[in-house]
Design a protein that fits this description.
- This protein is an all-alpha fold.
- It has one domain (3-21, 30-165).
- The protein has six helices and no strands.
- The protein has helices spanning 3-24, 40-51, 54-73, 78-96, 101-125, 133-176.
- Helix 2 runs antiparallel to helix 3 (54-73), helix 3 packs antiparallel against helix 4 and helix 5 (101-125) crosses helix 6 (133-176).
């Protein structure tokens, strides 16, 4: 199967898992006030930008951000702006830093933090919510970072291996046509 199809299928699966994850998350283990936001698709886009092709990751981020806006919040522009902007910044930062998985983990958690603060700020500006910063930090940001760090630990190594193989194959294909 062509790797473009594999990326598309993986994106679709991650989008689906991300949207149904709260239905299967054991709420009884935690207080009702904690909000665990899955950012699996965003993590994949970060890994895609670092280990495969940052341009493809940014274009996917634009489309998926628009889809997230339409499906989840019905306000166009929030995810459509933040997803590609952060993916682009991550790709530029990772050109300076070594792409070791521990460093990528820190950058990914920082990117999720920026995304969450960006969404929190936009929602605060347009008055969708009015909860204070301390509540956001304790009840949404920290649980979200913990959840996504656990998912990162599970998916980062296999995704890095697969994406670097795809990148090598892509570069070989491009090299064949360079004469």
């Amino acid at each position: 199967m062509n790797r473009k199809w594999k990326i598309g299928i993986l994106v679709t699966v991650l989008f689906g898992i991300e949207s149904i994850f709260p239905n299967f998350f054991p709420e009884y283990l935690f207080a009702d006030t904690y909000i665990f936001v899955p950012r699996f698709l965003f993590l994949f886009l970060i890994l895609l930008a670092i280990f495969y092709d940052w341009k493809k990751a940014v274009f996917l981020a634009i489309g998926l951000g628009l889809l997230m806006d339409i499906v989840f919040i019905e306000i166009l522009g929030i995810y459509t702006f933040w997803y590609p902007a952060i993916i682009y910044l991550v790709s530029k930062v990772m050109k300076v830093l070594h792409s070791h998985l521990a460093i990528v983990a820190m950058v990914a958690l920082l990117a999720i933090t920026v995304l969450e603060y960006g969404i929190y700020g936009m929602f605060y500006i347009i008055r969708i919510h009015d909860f204070p910063h301390v509540y956001f930090l304790e009840h949404r940001l920290i649980p979200t970072l913990i959840l996504n760090f656990i998912v990162y630990l599970i998916m980062s190594y296999p995704m890095k291996k697969k994406l670097t193989l795809w990148k090598k194959a892509k570069e070989e294909e491009e090299g064949m046509f360079q004469s």
